[in-house]
Inverse folding.
């Protein structure tokens, strides 16, 4: 059995920043990641990271308050306002820290960090490196993590690469550690720890199509959920307006921030025809732009009834090559279109999971010693709709906060190194589960891929941008049916080394569990707020639903229990949301 | 009927196979299908035992570099349509031990990465705000910072194959990225590390790396720059960028 004071699960931005924060407090930390750290999905973020620095000539009057207000308004008032103030309050120090660590942000002529406009933002406040911002930040953080790993003056910092965590071990509501599968050797091990931080990312792979990486499944949310940690606001799923047709790869909001147009088959900038986007046009927030794009397509004004054109030709070749080179590469590689001479075919697609593991503003959960940060967590600072450029910021701010909180918890904890029996029992249970999935005969064998594809389709069609009662009921029945069929899934390959099929089966079970919560939450929220748009309840209903949905799994009863939690207001009163 | 994608894929499980073999797979083509998609199809519907790495499927994570149809490239960026008229062969990256099938052991690659102090080392404490950097200074980092550490160049290089301690083109590009950063003040230490027996002088300017790079980076150019800096540092006058 391995032992570390703090385990961080996930080596994307949240995980790496959390691990660095733990080690900065001179506490022993290990990072477990199912991929090499730089393979994490944080690296696919394109547009940028928000911070009210006021570096842009048009951003001189920006402030923490204004950024926080935009975030709250963008959330359709579902974000917790004190948490948002803490979140944005740390934005400048977090971005400067990245710069000090060597992050190659683009610059203004005076040498300061350049900032571009983004949707839902009152001022240009998005720092960026062309359209590869996530990539450069992820590499910078990994570089710094290696610096911490190599430093001899502090407690150890250790990486466990290609270790997939499959179970969280909780005893008497105290976190004891995790069980993990080492993909290159196939062995399973128990890891004992005083505190565990999850930074496992979003659950986009519940949906088809999605902009999310193949590794962005619900596993990181379902593992704590099955261990009794509640999840929150799961019905809020962000659909990014511009994903490449048909493969679903992200086309950054920076395309519009830099001045790109969205046009229908008549070449018309249709956002002008909708009252909620008439003023801000292409820089309205994502939920609004996605809805209006979907409406255009549904009403027959899409191109081939399937997509909308993202037109950046008027920016000119120089600007496209300098600011959006990755977008050009992706368009040419995956759609055969050169955006310098042709519009890019795009449609809205699943992009971000606003909901997640229910945490407080320190990343702490209902289980002592268990923390979560980044997309897998829900503080909530994004509420019903996240603003572009706020997710990278969230990973770093709450990664840092949760790392510091976990280190403090461990330092003050008494009764260390407990839970040996619970961990050994869980390890055996996981061995048994692996055997069951790979070796035991099934009555009517099911193929995981069939269930995964059906789930993705149902979620996209019935729990997508627009939702209504009868379709949600159908979706719920479909998910329950798929869960039943899952019991007969067998992997078909029992080798342990890099058993991709086994991993995707474990992930499917998690996707099914979180899909159930998404559908249940969407059905019970009889209003429209942020990304959650009910055709049968088209307006926001603050009287009944200005609150967070919470779902808690009961391991004894093998079912989920819904409850509600109040939203923390206190600064801004909810108002109608227009841009 | 959909046209058929015809692949021949390297298979090897060191735990039980005496030697490697190539296995043919035929699967239906669909518009936009990539080689990575094809591998998912094989795993889902033909042979669940196929081992390969994947993550972003959008050319930015560096997981799926492999040898496809004669050159190193990212499976996610390679259209399956090249395998319609003839059977295309897929092999793992060279010069690294096989874990299973297309998955190779990157341990030595990351060891080389860790050797070169792959982080900014400024000589002064951080200011309250950003360290100023002009757009021209920042521009010197262009392309160098695009590296996704996929190891396509590393596998294409004959020298990494003959000297496993050779730092290699990908990691030397990273070293150059810090050497040319206006904010970094550790040039002498960096040059010390990259100019030992397993550093830049091991490069025989074959240029395979610059041909292989899926991100159009020029590792050979980076190595050339480090050679130039090392020469000026150790043979000529004081080091300059």
């Amino acid at each position: 059995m391995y032992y570390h004071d703090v385990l961080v699960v996930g080596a994307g931005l949240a995980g790496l920043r959390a691990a660095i924060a733990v080690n900065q407090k001179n506490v022993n930390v290990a990072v477990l990641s199912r991929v090499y750290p730089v393979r994490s999905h944080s690296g696919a973020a394109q547009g940028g990271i928000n911070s009210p620095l006021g570096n842009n000539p048009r951003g001189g009057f920006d402030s923490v308050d204004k950024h926080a207000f935009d975030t709250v308004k963008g959330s359709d008032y579902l974000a917790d306002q004190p948490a948002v103030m803490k979140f944005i309050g740390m934005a400048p120090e977090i971005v400067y820290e990245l710069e000090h660590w060597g992050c190659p942000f683009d610059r203004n002529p005076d040498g300061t960090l350049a900032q571009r406009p983004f949707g839902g933002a009152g001022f240009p406040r998005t720092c960026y490196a062309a359209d590869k911002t996530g990539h450069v930040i992820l590499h910078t953080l990994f570089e710094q993590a290696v610096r911490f790993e190599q430093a001899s003056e502090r407690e150890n910092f250790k990486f466990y690469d290609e270790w997939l965590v499959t179970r969280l071990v909780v005893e008497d509501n105290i976190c004891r550690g995790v069980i993990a599968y080492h993909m290159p050797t196939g062995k399973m091990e128990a890891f004992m720890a005083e505190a565990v931080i999850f930074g496992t990312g979003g659950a986009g792979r519940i949906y088809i199509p999605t902009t999310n990486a193949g590794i962005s499944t619900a596993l990181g949310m379902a593992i704590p959920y099955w261990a009794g940690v509640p999840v929150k606001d799961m019905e809020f799923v962000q659909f990014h307006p511009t994903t490449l047709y048909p493969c679903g790869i992200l086309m950054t909001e920076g395309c519009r921030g830099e001045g790109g147009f969205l046009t229908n088959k008549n070449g018309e900038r249709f956002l002008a025809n909708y009252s909620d986007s008439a003023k801000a046009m292409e820089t309205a927030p994502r939920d609004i732009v996605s809805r209006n794009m979907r409406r255009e397509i549904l009403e027959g004004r899409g191109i081939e009834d399937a997509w909308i054109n993202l037109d950046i030709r008027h920016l000119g070749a120089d600007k496209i090559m300098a600011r959006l080179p990755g977008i050009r590469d992706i368009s040419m590689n995956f759609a055969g279109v050169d955006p310098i001479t042709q519009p890019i075919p795009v449609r809205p697609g699943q992009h971000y999971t606003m909901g997640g593991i229910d945490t407080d503003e320190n990343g702490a959960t209902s289980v002592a010693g268990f923390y979560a940060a980044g997309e897998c967590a829900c503080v909530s600072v994004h509420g019903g709709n996240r603003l572009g450029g706020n997710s990278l910021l969230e990973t770093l701010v709450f990664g840092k906060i949760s790392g510091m909180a976990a280190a403090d918890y461990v330092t003050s904890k008494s009764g260390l190194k407990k839970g040996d029996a619970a961990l050994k029992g869980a390890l055996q249970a996981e061995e048994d589960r692996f055997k069951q999935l790979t070796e035991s005969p099934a009555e009517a064998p099911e193929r995981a891929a069939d269930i995964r594809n059906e789930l993705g389709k149902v979620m996209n069609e019935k729990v997508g941008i627009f939702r209504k009662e009868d379709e949600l009921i159908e979706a719920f029945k479909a998910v329950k049916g798929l869960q039943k069929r899952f019991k007969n899934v067998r992997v078909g390959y029992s080798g342990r080394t890099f058993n991709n099929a086994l991993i995707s089966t474990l992930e499917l079970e998690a996707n099914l569990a979180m899909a159930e919560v998404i559908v249940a939450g969407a059905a019970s929220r009889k209003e429209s707020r942020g990304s959650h748009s009910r055709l049968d309840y088209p307006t926001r209903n603050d009287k009944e639903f200005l609150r967070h949905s919470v779902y808690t799994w009961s391991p004894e009863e093998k079912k989920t229990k819904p409850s509600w939690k109040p939203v923390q207001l206190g600064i801004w009163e909810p108002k109608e949301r227009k841009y | 009927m959909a046209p058929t994608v015809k692949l021949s894929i390297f298979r090897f499980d060191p735990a039980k196979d005496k030697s490697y073999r190539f296995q043919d797979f035929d699967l239906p083509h669909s518009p936009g299908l990539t080689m990575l998609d094809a591998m998912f199809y094989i795993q889902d519907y033909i042979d669940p035992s196929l081992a390969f790495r994947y993550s972003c499927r959008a050319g930015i994570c560096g997981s799926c570099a492999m040898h496809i149809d004669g050159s190193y490239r990212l499976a996610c960026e390679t259209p399956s349509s090249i395998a319609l008229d003839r059977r295309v062969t897929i092999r793992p990256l060279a010069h690294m031990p096989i874990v299973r099938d297309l998955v190779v052991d990157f341990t030595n690659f990351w060891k080389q990465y860790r050797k070169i102090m792959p982080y900014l080392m400024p000589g002064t404490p951080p200011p309250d705000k950003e360290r100023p950097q002009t757009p021209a200074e920042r521009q010197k980092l262009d392309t160098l910072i695009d590296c996704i550490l996929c190891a396509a160049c590393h596998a294409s290089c004959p020298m990494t194959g003959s000297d496993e301690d050779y730092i290699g083109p990908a990691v030397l590009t990273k070293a150059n990225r810090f050497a040319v950063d206006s904010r970094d003040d550790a040039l002498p230490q960096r040059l010390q590390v990259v100019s030992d027996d397993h550093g830049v002088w091991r490069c025989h300017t074959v240029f395979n790396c610059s041909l292989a790079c899926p991100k159009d980076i020029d590792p050979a150019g980076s190595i050339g720059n480090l050679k130039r800096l090392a020469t000026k540092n150790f043979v000529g006058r004081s080091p300059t960028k």
Q: What stands out?
A: Chain A touches chain B through 62 residues (CB under 8 Å). The mean pLDDT of chain A is 96. The first strand of chain A starts at residue 2 and ends at 9. DSSP finds 16 helices and 21 strands in chain A.
